[in-house]
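REVIEWER CHECKLIST
Item 1: Sequence provided? yes
Item 2: Single chain? yes
Item 3: Sequence as submitted:
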Amino acid sequence: MDDIVNFTYYKRMIGFLVKKTFFDIWDNLLRIVLLNLGFILSLTIPIILPGFIPILALAIAVFAVGCLWCTVYLVAAALSLKAVSDYGIFSFADFWANLKAGWPAGIALGFIGFFFFLAVKIIIPFYLQLNSPIGLLLAAVIFWTLALTLIASQFFCAIRARLDTKPLKIIKKCFIIFFDNSGFSIFTLLYTIVTLILSIVFAFLLPGPAGTLLFLDEALRLRLMKYDWLEANPPAEGSPKRRAIPWDAILIEEREKTGSRTFRNFIFPWKD
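Item 4: Structure as written out by the authors:
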């Protein structure tokens, strides 16, 4: 949990993260827009389609299947965007392959979302209606558990793309990443919220869900460099603390690959 104490120390890494994410979104603008458009169209299945079905049980089934499809789509998008984060590109043939590879994790993510829905709509209100100290305490415990789970689970898709394929192990690693990088995790959640709010201006086509997934993958990718460095540079024998992470040194090669650009580079890249 060294992030809480040394959050200011990481500001250069955070600045690089925001810069690289912006560059990668700009360089892959069409792919980002198409991924977002696909997600928006996917949302019509659970949001709009059930309204046209007169049979209640069938409408509920379509809603549930549509929600699961959306979470599977998000995982497939994250698997595809990993290539962008790694200074590459992806084709839409890759996306279809990632749909097949990522559907178990997508289903698990859908059930996590269903758990959140039950807790917020049913469980917490139930305990609050008890009008007792015990009910209030239980509601508070559940609320803060959900809050911590939300912060941790934001890395679910990125961890599936980079670290593990099994849903239970992905969930476990979400909490490991969160508790070891708590300050950074809170920052990424706030950044994600602000990004999605700003996406309203562009009808969620930019940066939208795809831009958010790319940011979270970039974030996890950089944090994993921390563990690579710690493995190569363990603390001195008997030392109770880990060594401070030298982000400036770690990111030298990353900065060279990413480069820097002027406003002219963005608008007229062919003139350079």
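Item 5: Key structural point noted by reviewer: The chain has 13 helices and no strands.
Item 6: Recommendation: ____
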